[in-house]
Amino acid sequence: MKSKIFVENITQSVPVSTAKPLVHIQKLMDCISPYAEIFTPSRGEALRYIYNNKRVCYLLHEGNVTLHRRGDGMILNSEKGPFLLGVSNLQTQHPHLYVRASENVKISRISAERISLVIEKEQLWESLCHLIIYTASRIYEHCTVISQLSSYEIIRIQLLELMQESERFRMNVTAANYIQDRTYLSRSGIMRILSRLREDGHIELQRGVLLGVSNLPVKCS
């Protein structure tokens, strides 16, 4: 799929204000990785936080994953490596979330007990706090967006966030599916707004895949 990709004013418009603490995440990854087991999930495979009757965490080295809520499957967050998943809710006895590999990823698994021991041994509390704050902030921002804004404002934010995903991820998901998986909006409503934005030249779509955005209006009249 080849087409001219255009992006304008993205950095001024993306709602995510919490910077990813890459230095602290990498420090955690470097210390924990030697104790983790690398495995290869298939694309789209659901990864649970219970494995062989033990609580586990995941280290995402490369690629993209999405964080889903059990029950309705809504996507609460998406992340690309490097990242650690599951450390923010280590004490949860019955995890209400699961991870899905969005593409071919490099990932490893470690028991919650082992990761706790490594964090204590290496005194990684500061880095852990930065990771937890970032994770909580991302989910809080997502919940705030879908509960307080108009349908158009939600779609606008989701389009801008989609443009921040890796190109490989973006080329394998339609804009409509990306938005619907992360919101309570109806598909017909999403398609109607996307169609209007496309007609007005604010977005470029090819077979439903978002190739670019240009001067998305703040409000839709």
Automatic annotation (TrEMBL):
Highest taxon of the lineage: Bacteria
Domain called IprA winged helix-turn-helix: residue spans: 151-218
Pfam family, one: HTH_46
MF annotations from Gene Ontology: DNA binding
InterPro entries according to UniProt: HTH_46, RmlC-like_jellyroll
Signal sequence extent: none
Keywords: DNA-binding
Protein name per UniProt: Putative DNA-binding transcriptional regulator
